[in-house]
Each structure stands twice: as C-alpha cells, then as structure tokens.
Amino acid sequence: MSAPAPSRRSAALALEQLTAEIRSELYLLLDDVGGQICLVLDRGIGGQLDHVVPGGAEALRSHGVRFVRSLRPELDAVREHRVVYLVRPTVAAMMLIAGHVMNENMAEVTPRRFHVFMVPRTTVLCTHVLEEAGVLPHVRVGAYRLDAIALDTDVLSLELPDSLREVAVDGDPTALECVTQFLLRFEQLYGTPREVRTFGTAARGVAERLARADLRAERARCRARSGGDGVATAAGPRDFGGVLPQCNLSDAADARARRDVDTLVIIDRLADLVTPMVTPLTYEGLVDEVMGGIHHGCARLPRAVVADDADETASAAAADADGDRVAYALNSRDALYAEVRDLNIEELGARLGDRAKAIRAAYDAFRARRDASITEIHDFVKRIPGLAAAYQSLQTHIRLAECVARATDARAFRARWHAERTFLEGEPAFDVIDDLLATREPPFSLLRLACLASLTMGGLRAARHDALRRGVLQTYGFELLGTLHHLERVGLLARARDATAAGLVLGGGGARTPFAALRRALRLVVADVNSRQPSDAAYVSSGYAPISVRLVEAIAAPDGAALAAALPQVPGLPHLAYAPRAFSREELGCAFDDAGAGVLAAGALSRASPGSPAIPGAKPVLVVVFVGGVTYAEIAALRLLSRQPDFPFTVLVAATAVINGARLLQTLVMEMENSLQKTHATA
C-alpha cells in the first residue's frame, strides 16, 4: 500500500464519488469492529486499496488499524489486537483463516472473535468451509464491496482477472453478478444510461441481470412506500450469495432522472478474442507485455530503471541481478506518462527527446539571463521542484523505453509481429509456429500465436490441429493437456469444422469466413496507418484495429452499413440495443423473457445518436464495459476515438480486469501434477 493513486479531477465523470463511497464503506466496517486492529489482506487487495485510501496505512491508523499483514499460513502474534480479514471468496483463503482461528484460540482461555470480510461478496461455499472447519462460531462473516477501482481518470477495473474462465469454462456466473452489482452502484451515482447496447452472450446476461435487479428494487420501493424503512436490497439470494448489498431507495428512484451517462456499451470478451492475441505497439501496452505486467496501475521495475542518478544506477543494476524490483505507479498523476503512454513505439523516442530539450531549454534560458530581476529569480526557484520532478520522470521513462526498445528490436519480436500480421491478413504463417515449437520457446508464447492462427483462419484443419496438439504435449509435457482442453472449450484453439459449427470462433483466410467478413466490414487491417500522428485506431498495433473498438466506432457512425455487415459475424447473437428510460421497469424486466427479447434487439442496427450532455459544451459520456477483460491496446484506441472531434462521445472504460494475451491464457491453465516426475526427483 504505497503507490499513489491517480488524480480523478479531470475525469469525464466525477469518479471520486465512487471512490469515496467505497472508502466510506471500509471505514464503517473498521469502526464497527473498533479497538486496535490487525488488518490481514489477501493477495492483490492491498494494491486495490491504494486507489481507495489515498493516505495508505496512515489513513487507516485513524480507524484503529495498527498492523497490516499479508494473508499467509502463519499469523504473527497479535493477541492484543482484533483481526480483520479482507480476502477473496476462495476456498484456499478460508482454509488459511480456519487455521489461524484454531491456532490462536487453542492458546486462549477465552476464544477470540475474528472478522472476515470477503471482497466483493460472500459465498455460501466459503461460509460452509468455515463451518466444516468448526470455526464459524468464532468468525464474523461479511462482505466489503470493493467492486471497482479507478485505475485512471478514464479507466475502471473490477480486478477480476479470472472472469473469462469462470464464465466460459466453469459455467460460474459470479463475475456477471459482480459486474451487475457494480453497474447498479454506478447507476445510483451517475444515473441510468439513455441507451444500452450489448455485444456477446455474457454482455446480454449482464444487461438482463441489471434490468431484473432494477425491477426488484422498484418493487421493494413500492413496498417501502406502504410502510418500510426506505432501504431495499438490489439483488436476490441467488444473485449475491445470500448476503445482499443495500441501496438507498431515493437514490434508485432518482437514477433515471440523472443524465451523467448517455450510452452504455457492454462487450463480452468472447465477441473479440483476436485482440488480446495481437501484440500491442503502444508504450503502455509494451510495458505491460515486456516488463512483467502492470497490476493495479503499478509495474514492478528494476531499481536501475527508477534510480535517481547515475551513481545509484550501478548499484541498482547489481541489486536487480538478484531480482530486486520496486513498484512504480503508472497513471496520469505522472504528466509525462499521461502524454506518452498511448504513443506508438515508433513515435516514443522522438517525443521523449522533445521533452528533454524543453526541460534543458528552461534551465538554459534562465542561466542566459544575467540581468534577471529578484522577482524573476524567485519565480524560477519556485519552478525548480516541478522541473526536478519532470526531469526525474523523464529519466525513468527514457530508461524504461530503452528496456522496451531492446525487446522490440529483437529479431524474434519482429518475426512474431510479421507472423501476426500475416494471419490477420488471411494468409497462413504456420512455419513460424513450427519454429517456435522446434526451438522450445515458452509454451504460452507458442500457444498465443497458435490461438491467433485458429481465430483468424476459421479454426485449424484437423491434421494441423492434431499435429500441433501432439507437438505441444511431446515438447512441454502432458501437464498442458487440460490447458489445451480449456483453450478449445473457450474457442481459442479449435478445429476448422468445430469452429464453424460452434459459431464462437472468428474465422479468416477464406472469403466466406466470419473474420474475413469482419475484416472487410470494419476495416480491421489498415495498410497505410500513420503511427506517428494517428487518426485511426489501427495505429495501436501498426495496422490492426481492435474489433471491439471498431464496433464502438460503428454504432456512432452516420452510415450503418458497416454495423449491419459486421453484427451477424460477431459471436453471441442476438445483440441488443434499447433505451431503458423508454420502458417501465416492469416492461423492461419482462422484455428479457423469450417472448419479448426481439423488442430489445430491434434497434441493434441503428445508429447511437448522442443525447444532450450533462455538462453544456462537453461531449456526452459513453461507458464501455468489457466482461472478460480489456487490453491496453483497446484503451489507447478508445482514448484516440474519444479525442477525435467527429466522434460524438467522451469514452469511459470499465472492465473486469486489464489483461494481455499471456495473462488471458494463464487464467485458462488447468493445473495437473506430474507424480512420475515428483517420484523421480525424490528417488
């Protein structure tokens, strides 16, 4: 809990309202526990709290928190403190907590009481695990709705990286319920959108849950008018694990009156699996790919990259050889990063050079003025801290850009980019995949390119598919057998016949495949894109525009021909487009029944005409929600779209997580233990 959160004052919406509400709920939980508290955090929760509690541990101290610990098998001696857990609702976390409770209470004459708050919801399974372990009488179970954090002024994340696997592989709708609860809170704060559009099955599921939850709140409101307390639950027991988040009825009643959000677009990641498999070429996207990932808005960088001066760099480089890294916040609080994060790597060096010249010119201009007045000297002295901070930020990003450039200049990186481009254009490049397999490249690097081949070529021919599967298992071991099964089940790696029959995998290559139709209708591949002064979303990968971004662009285009040609090829029919305010809540809830679903899909081919903006002179706000994760390439492309004067909306992005191709594939891993290898190692 140390990385600074981004400033949200320049956001299209007042995101501080959302953050303040989540922070207030945390303080209420801690104050209700009272006394001196030892706060135990599950992995990743601390990074999320950095965005909610600006003061970090110091701010929590005023609410009784004396120690902050990570969840691990051993609990440090805290006998005089009350233990509060903020954990994900997983069986593994519950087993650790059960062990803590039993160990602590064995040494106590009077059993202690522990407080377990699951994030963002409780589950019946987790409560049952505590009950089976015999510790439930000593545990207070509750939920803390840390459902979304503002990673930046225009990006919200629910931090649910496994959502695609849970929904598409495990058949677990928990992630959809979490997105629904987030959108309910979002509507209470910023109003019901004028129009809702969905692409994909999971997106339609979220829209349906949202409408039904809104209907339940309306019915509870009616009951409250005839003698209630003004508080209702927005979800039923099956929707939220039996523990119901409360919403104020007056807020729910006013949601349709507010006009902060014009349009809500919900996109299922399965509707565009191609984009995560493509290597991004923006600075932020490459930092995420090359430097080990950006998590909760922070990257763990080598100390040599963030060292203050040249003297520290040498010792820091030695420290990094031992794996020593430091957390570095990457958000709009760093003005230079906000300027360069979405640049194509081709333009990055020139922009950093211009910034270096500007800082040097500021110093040189003052030094050249020997007749400067006292007032001018005083004004320059006041600027020195800002110039020093700008210089340090510049040095950090120059070093970081050098690390990225070393990766992108490598022959293997360029060969991979050319292979990706070949597949995207509909031509085979299987020799590159064969070379990766023969040289035993990391398995996920191989599988990522193979998945792109499958997605763009309409699936792999039976002989090619079987050969790839056999080669992977022989080269990397049978432990990947379950992972290959998950890739096939999601639709990332499929036989050509299966892909066509399932309708889930985007094809390519042939003129009659869905991806080829999408490529033509949405102009997914642009040969002459200007990466230095971009005006087209395809600049994010020097030639390929994300399908999801093209869909957002198409719904606002005056000519609906592109949307009409593309929609039948996007998985997850039917796609919906409706105006929630045009229906009563009863009508909207009933419209999602099979008999009325056609009413909501009737406007899918129509243009999204913006309404009146909430702020005069500003563009209306369009919120794009990705169920299954969003990539930095898509974020950069949507930012470009938002800045264009002819695009009628300001875009705000929300997602279950920020992902890249490698992390998406890793969530689909099926762990398999090699007992033979284990026996051999011990023999």
Q: What characterizes the major β-sheet?
A: 7 strands, mixed
How far is the N terminus from the C terminus?
44 Å
Q: Overall mean pLDDT score? A: 84
Outline type: globular
Helix content, binned percent: 40-55%
* Helix/sheet category: alpha/beta
Computed Rg = 26 Å
Give the beta-strand count. 17
Strand content: 5-15%
Low-confidence stretches: 232-250, 310-322, 501-511, 679-683
* Number of helical segments with 4 or more residues: 30
The spatial strand order of the largest sheet comes to: 6-7-17-16-11-8-15
Secondary-structure blueprint:
Layout: H1 15-33, E1 37-41, H2 45-52, H3 57-61, E2 65-70, E3 82-87, H4 91-106, E4 114-118, H5 124-132, E5 139-143, E6 149-152, E7 155-157, H6 163-168, H7 174-190, E8 195-199, H8 201-225, E9 231-233, E10 246-248, H9 249-254, E11 263-268, H10 274-277, H11 283-290, E12 294-295, E13 298-302, H12 303-306, H13 310-321, E14 325-329, H14 335-340, H15 345-368, H16 374-408, H17 411-424, H18 430-438, H19 443-456, H20 462-476, H21 481-490, H22 496-502, H23 514-522, H24 547-555, H25 561-566, E15 576-578, H26 585-591, H27 597-601, E16 621-627, H28 632-643, E17 650-655, H29 661-667, H30 675-682
Helix pairs in contact: 4-5, 7-8, 8-26, 11-16, 15-16, 17-19, 18-19, 19-29
